[in-house]
Amino acid sequence: MLVLITYDVNTEDAAGRKRLRRIAKECVNYGQRVQNSVFECLLDAAQCRKLQATLCAIMDKEKDSLRFYYLGNRYEKKIEHFGAKQTYQPEEPLIL
Questions:
Q1: 72: left (phi over 0), alpha (psi -120 to 50) or beta
Q2: Which of 41, 56, 60, 88 is deepest in the core (most CB within 10 A)?
Q3: What global pTM score does this model have?
Q4: Alpha carbon of 52 to those of 2, 14, 16, 61, 84: distances in Å?
Q5: Please, what's the b/e burial string for 41-68 (b: 16 or more CB within 10 A of its CB; e: otherwise)?
Q6: How far apart are CA 42 and CA 31, in angstroms?
Q7: pLDDT tens-digit profile of 35-60?
Q8: Do 66 and 30 form a contact (C-beta atoms < 8 A)?
Q9: pLDDT tens per residue across span 68-78
């Protein structure tokens, strides 16, 4: 299923900047960054629970926020893209 992960981390102090880097690094392991604090991740249920638990352990629940949007397996019809960046297709090969 495609999961859209968004986060907002308070970066007023060094600890917040460290949390921001750690959350982004974890998300990169599972998906593709599509905006500064937005990732599209193609996950199964177990991967999703694991990533959610990891991110919740990193974040400060008093200062930060984390959102998971579950787009499911038929996500192609739920996404419209406009603008300069190319659309990311998580099931197609990624050529670097």
A1: left
A2: 41
A3: 0.78
A4: 14, 23, 19, 13, 30
A5: bbbeeeebeebeebbeebbeeeebebee
A6: 6
A7: 999 999 999 999 999 999 999 999 99
A8: no
A9: 999 877 766 66
